Amino acid sequence: MHSSSEKSAASVTAAGKDIPDFSKGLAGIVAGRTAICSLDGNLRYRGYSIESLATNGDFEEVAYLLLYGELPSTTEHRGFCQRIAAAASSLDPAVTAALAELARRSPSASPMDALRTGVSILGQIELDQTPGSRESLLAQAECLLGQVPAMLVAWIDLSAGRAIAPWPAGTIASSLLERLTGRVPSANGVAAFGSTLVFYAEHEFNASTFAARTVVSTGSDMHSGITAAIGALKGPLHGGANEQVLEQLTQIASTDRAEAWVSEQLAAKHVVMGFGHRVYKDGDVRATLLGKMCRTMVRGTSGEELERLAERVEQIMLERKKLKPNLDWPAARVYHALGLPVRVFTPIFVVARMSGWAAHIIEQIGDNRLIRPMSLYCGPAPREYRRP
Ligand SMILES: CC(C)(COP(=O)(O)OP(=O)(O)OC[C@H]1O[C@@H](n2cnc3c(N)ncnc32)[C@H](O)[C@@H]1OP(=O)(O)O)[C@@H](O)C(=O)NCCC(=O)NCCS
User: What's the whole-model pTM score?
Assistant: First the structure.
């Protein structure tokens, strides 16, 4: 967190020169234009409200919208789903071989590291050096949309010492959920899981997307941009928060302990994961919508207990810090209710955000200017070279 003197943009004059406004963490800075997503009041992907997409669309439809700019026709949707499923069913053998060796050497490594490495290997195999045409970028994006979830389940199998099971037929939501849980999911389970993918698909200039845009703004390639984005998403202040949310709820364990636990965290100046947002200061629309879905999903099951605990923590955070939950707060509970292990929560975010990252990479390349901000120097004054 930043000190209060660094919170807002400030114009500074040093050595007689005007230095542009400075804002720590680029808070409040508009760093570019995008036609992909708007956060103005409501969250919209290419003009469609997130609520309508999460309730009516499937993940492939939304990914197509993000990449191509329009919702697909039935034929376009079918073709898109088939191409992604084909990519998911044929993970490149060089990736499989590398992951197998890595799983043998360090089976406890994070699946996020496996995804970052796997995408990087794909870039090397494809000899991806510089961005190609819009068509070739779209083809790369479609391939990655299938290969990334396939990499995730391959790593889960290999790191558990098992052979890689085949990719089941179906949509990304149904096939991935089936592979991660080891059982054929219910229609309701697939719908809830698919909604989380839609919510996670895109979010404007967040840290990982900005990292991807920065990389390709130098003239670098799609795989380098996605590799950087996965690294950025891994951090607990960004995508890694959904895993931490469940760890925290498990640690609190009961509603009676919630008050004391939050007090301890705040007294120690720790952030409570799943709360607060850089842009949404009055609540995250995705958290409200998915929170409702989660409560409906667990009604009448043992999952209601966790919902009561989550609700209590929400009340306390609002009273104490005036902070509302972000998307990771309900997403972690949905994944837990679906029987998913915590270590795949952030990798699932990668699977979904692949669509947004690729759309932004293509948009950046289509109207590029090198992303290169300036810094405000705060080191020693000029001095003579002298060895200590
Ligand atoms: C998301 C996040 C990084 C945004 O950071 P930011 O925009 O720099 O937030 P700010 O510093 O403006 O926050 C304002 C105040 O709320 C506090 N705050 C913000 N999020 C908090 C949280 N989750 N728990 C406790 N306090 C929090 C800050 O410490 C700050 O307090 P201060 O005024 O006493 O310094 C931050 O809210 C956070 O760390 N949240 C938890 C991680 C998380 O859920 N990440 C997923 C984001 S989608």
Answer: 0.94
